[in-house]
Design goal:
heterodimer, A: mainly alpha, B: mainly alpha, 2 domains, 19 helices
Chain lengths: 327, 501
């Protein structure tokens, strides 16, 4: 059954990818990338990677599509200078594809319990997580503590993307010469569409609540800071679509947005510094409480919060930077 | 736990966490001061770590207290220490001189973002140099690349945006190739730790995925390291970036990619894939020679100083690769010394250009006409750095060129061809450095013809002059007393070759 779903989804994925490359209409391309991410999310879900699926759906299909649309508002809707198929490029891409296919001839069968990936570190994670960390979601344990340093790195990547966009585009009221007052008040995008406005207003509280659930339930089910941050930001973006750009910037001011971007990363790093000061290595949560397992749980809770704060701040700041540029 | 045992982590944590703090700072100069202080601290840590690495010791640090391969291991040896020293040193010196020219370039509200991106780039490069984990390399490669794109995009005109975007596309392709390779290795070994990978690969029978992985990783990193013919992004990126950003990235960023390339190929693949070492050499040596010849030839005719020096970098990367492709101790030592010494020379040269450009307002050779009369100290530093780039005795560049020539001549007939290429490249270097020096000293100030360029000769900012002379001084110091880089390189080369079986 998994194989059947897999073939179906992957075929669609290829079709959509070809569609993205071939279309000259940028709006169509953006919509197709959204569909691509959704298919990818479904794929991850079929492979039992619910955490990754949730992230892909929230970030790939949700926020990136909104950001791409924000970018699209600044440029013409069609590709200019469309070139015909580039022979050399096509040849190289085909060659690389064939190489990857060649490499997979000797790969272990999907789901084979004797495959190297299931023989080495993975069993240790499965065995030790309940003992050392005491939470049921092993993925959260790997991302939050065993490889928490990588996760800190990913937060910094998100943070850097945020400062990059703000550096280039500016953010009214904080970066660049424009002030928040210059952003047009109200009645933007969906403001004059009755149905989206009412449905959206009803939905926002639930979206925000769900974000908090995903944030704090990550130890038990799929979820965590990245997904929660993306969902929270999606709720706030919906608000700014309904109420207007300026109103949204008054709820969370530009300085606060920048503060959120920085403080999430600092909170995460701060946990590392504190565990150093308490005599452990960087990010050694065992030090955070008398009982190492409790320390681990505190550590994961706090760093996930840091992740959520930075992701929310960056996504909102990037959205506002694009949106304010549009008008 | 003592502070000394925490140094490997602090090396990255200091710039990584001062970056978000910098964003919160307001007011002119504050963000610059924070960034410079953090960078200087990172340099001090790198010096301390180098002192331990000089004893031949390898330090292992478990992030989060989890032992490798379950957690992420930081691993410091002579090779990583050398890279850390170069990276933090280049960053600190260029930040020291950056304040005025950056303030001139951007509004006060954008400065904190710029310096934060700088620190992130620094932390990313240090993180790559010190980690012992293949996936962690990818994460920090993303960090440093993304921040570098921002720094390049800060360049003075709109061409910087195109250059940054092209670099972004190329860099992403490179990183993706690397990730595909790591994924394939993970599929066959189930581990991400370099040392563990090496051990477990020995037991893998199906080598096909590993061979493909080696290809993807080598090409991806070669793209990042701008190895000829994958260098096309480099001249645009170097010439469009703000001048002091060019100093920073030209001194260290391609070397860090090359470092990962050598480390991955020698540590993981050479011992486990039959004939891989030979393929590595026979594939890269011709590219290295071509890189030397083509890079030098373009530099000899290029009229934009920054592009000229960028093409010279393509040639110099060729030397490094050539040394590495010999596959023996002498060649590898020469290659690693070159990584360090070229960073010194090129960093100092770009810094001199940065100082000159604050007044000449242009980057063509004609713009430099007669500038030496107004800025004798800057021009003198440029001459020293240029001498080091050529490899004139008494400068750091001589030491590495000499080591490389000796190594080449040990290689038999083909080594002679390599030696001829090295000599030809050095003669070309003499020609293109002279092309900078000639107008500088013997041109007339009226010779500056660039449209609307009003030559405003005022004093170079003292901090920039200080940084420039420290860099030029380093070129002389390591030329006369080369013990530190050479012994680090020898240790590193022995370590790399020790993984051959």
């Amino acid at each position: 059954m998994t194989v059947l779903f897999g073939i179906f989804l992957l075929t669609l994925l290829v079709v959509v990818a070809i569609g993205i490359v071939r279309t000259g209409n940028l709006f169509t391309a953006v919509m197709l990338t959204g569909i691509f991410s959704l298919l990818m999310a479904a794929n991850f879900f079929v492979l039992d990677a619910a955490d990754v699926a949730l992230t892909e759906a929230a970030v790939g299909a949700g926020i990136s599509t909104v950001l791409l649309l924000g970018g699209l508002a600044l440029v013409p809707g069609r590709e200019r200078n469309r070139r015909r198929l580039h022979g050399l490029a096509l040849g190289i891409v085909s060659l690389i594809t064939l190489m990857v296919v060649y490499a997979t001839f000797e790969k272990p069968r999907l789901g084979d319990p004797s495959a190297p990936v299931h023989q080495h570190v993975a069993p240790w994670y499965l065995e030790q997580t309940p003992i050392l960390v005491g939470i049921p979601n092993v993925v959260t344990a790997v991302l939050g503590t065993f490889r928490g340093y990588d996760t800190l790195g990913e937060v910094i990547v998100v943070f850097t993307a945020g400062i990059g966009v703000l550096f280039l585009l500016g953010l009214p009221g904080a970066i660049g010469s424009r002030k928040t007052e210059e952003v047009q008040p109200g009645n933007s995008y969906l403001g004059h569409h009755l149905i989206p406005q009412i449905v959206g207003t009803l939905l926002i509280p639930f979206i925000l609540l769900f974000a908090l659930y995903v944030q704090f339930h990550g130890e038990y089910g799929p979820g965590g800071g990245f997904q929660a941050g993306a969902i929270f930001a999606a709720g706030m973006i919906l608000y700014s679509l309904i109420a207007g750009e300026r109103e949204a910037l008054q709820v969370i001011t530009p300085r606060v947005l920048i503060g959120l971007m920085a403080s999430g990363a600092l909170l995460f790093g701060g946990v590392g510094i504190v565990s150093m000061l308490l005599g452990g290595n960087f990010l050694d949560y065992n030090m955070l409480a008398d009982n190492p397992v409790a320390g681990q749980q505190w550590g994961i809770l706090i760093i996930e919060l840091g992740v959520g704060i930075t992701v929310t701040g960056v996504l909102l700041a990037v959205y506002h930077a694009f949106a304010a540029r549009g008008r | 736990m003592s502070i000394a045992s925490q140094l490997p982590a602090l090396q990255i944590v200091v710039p990584l966490l001062v970056a978000p703090l910098t964003v919160l700072l307001r007011g002119s100069g504050l963000a610059w001061a924070a960034a410079t202080a953090a960078s200087a601290m990172a340099f001090a840590i790198a010096v301390a770590l180098t002192l331990t690495a000089l004893d031949g010791a390898t330090i292992s640090y478990d992030m989060g207290g989890w032992p490798a391969p379950y957690g992420i291991e930081l691993r410091l040896d002579a090779f990583s220490a050398l890279l850390l020293l170069l990276t933090t040193g280049a960053s600190t010196l260029s930040l020291l001189g950056a304040r005025d020219s950056i303030a001139e370039l951007m509004g006060e509200s954008r400065e904190p973002l710029f310096y934060a991106a700088w620190l992130v780039a620094l932390a990313g490069l240090c993180g790559i140099a010190i980690t012992g984990d293949a996936f962690n390399v990818f994460v920090f490669m993303e960090i440093s690349s993304l921040a570098t794109y921002v720094l390049i995009a800060a360049g003075p005109d709109r061409r910087a945006l195109t250059a940054a975007f092209k670099y972004l596309i190329m860099g992403t392709v490179g990183a993706t190739f690397y990730l595909i390779g790591v994924g394939l290795v993970y599929m066959m070994t189930g581990t991400l730790n370099f040392a563990d990978m090496e051990a477990r690969l020995a037991e893998v029978d199906e080598v096909r995925p590993i061979v493909v992985a080696a290809g993807f990783i080598t090409i991806g990193l070669a793209l990042k390291a701008a190895i000829f013919p994958l260098h096309v992004w480099l001249p645009n990126a170097y010439s469009s970036a703000p001048n002091l950003v060019t100093v920073f990235i030209a001194a260290c960023s391609t070397k860090v990619a090359l470092y990962v390339l050598l480390r991955f190929d020698f540590f993981v693949f050479h011992g486990n894939l039959v004939g891989h070492a030979f393929q590595f050499s026979s594939f890269l040596a011709p590219l290295a020679v071509l890189g030397i010849l083509v890079g030098s030839a373009v530099a000899v005719v290029e009229s934009n100083v920054k592009r000229l020096l960028a093409y010279s970098s393509v040639a110099q990367l060729g030397y490094i690769l050539l040394g590495a492709s010999f596959g023996d101790l002498a060649g590898m030592t020469a290659a690693i010394t070159l990584m360090f010494n070229h960073g010194l020379a090129k960093g100092a040269l770009f810094m001199a250009i940065a100082a000159l450009a604050m007044h000449t307002r242009g980057h063509t050779l004609a713009d430099l006409s007669g500038a030496a009369r107004q800025m004798p100290w800057t021009a003198a530093a440029l001459v020293i750095a240029g001498a080091s780039l050529i490899g004139i005795p008494g400068t750091a560049g001589f030491i590495s060129k000499w080591l490389l020539l000796q190594a080449a001549l040990q290689q038999g007939p083909l080594g002679v061809v390599a030696a001829v290429a090295v000599v030809a490249g050095s003669l070309a270097a003499l020609a293109y450095v002279w092309r900078i020096i000639e107008p500088l000293y013997f041109g007339t100030a009226e010779g500056s013809t660039a449209g609307g360029s009003t030559a405003v000769y005022t004093a170079t900012p003292p901090l920039l002059l200080l940084a420039l002379w420290l860099a030029a001084g380093a070129n002389v110091y390591f030329g006369l007393i080369p013990a530190v880089p050479v012994s680090l390189s020898e240790l590193a080369a022995a370590e790399l070759l020790g993984h051959l079986r």
